Amino acid sequence: MAHTLAARYSQAIHPFHAVLVAGGMVLFLGATLSDLAYAATYHVQWTNFGSWLIPGALLLTGLALLFTLADLIRVHRRAAGIGAYAVVLVITWILGFINALVHARDAWGAMPMGLWLSVITTVLAAAATWLGFSHRHPGVPR
């Protein structure tokens, strides 16, 4: 008698969790691009776009952080490398919050610190997204 094993998809990162992490990265990227546009054109509206995108990214990253904390608490959902993922996500959220405070100033006062913080948070969000999708998942052979 032949037995067929069904391939399981990863349960280490929930699909909604994946959408939150990837969405936060995209919003941080949008804020970086709007800061770069402001640096090139000095149109104040570009910093307004960044000021609007950063809180959205913080919301999505914060919700993803809650998912990560829930995965850290539940032993059967804990995967190898999730600790590093959680640390990068926390640092991303903290620097994103500081970036939101910097962008709350007027356009002239937000630059160049706002641009540098946007670039750093985008790189950290990309690293968190990569770590979230690349760590070894429990119960799934590679």
Can you put this structure into words, describing what you see?
With 142 residues, the protein is mostly helical. It has a single domain, classed as Four Helix Bundle (Hemerythrin (Met), subunit A) (Up-down Bundle), CATH 1.20.120. It has five helices and no strands. α1 (15-41) runs antiparallel to α2 and α3 runs antiparallel to α5 (113-134). It is elongated and about 70 Å long.
Which of globular, elongated, flat, extended, rod-shaped describes the shape? Answer: elongated
- The end-to-end span amounts to 26 Å
What Rg is obtained from the alpha carbons, in whole angstroms? 18 Å
Low-confidence stretches: 5-11
The CATH architecture can be named as Up-down Bundle
Number of helices: 5
* Count of domains: 1
Find the structural class using helix and strand composition: mainly alpha
The share of residues in extended strands comes to under 5%
Question: Which labels suit this protein?
Answer:
mainly alpha, Four Helix Bundle (Hemerythrin (Met), subunit A)
Quick take:
Keywords: Membrane, Transmembrane, Transmembrane helix. This protein is an all-alpha fold. It has helices spanning 15-41, 44-73, 82-103, 107-110, 113-134.
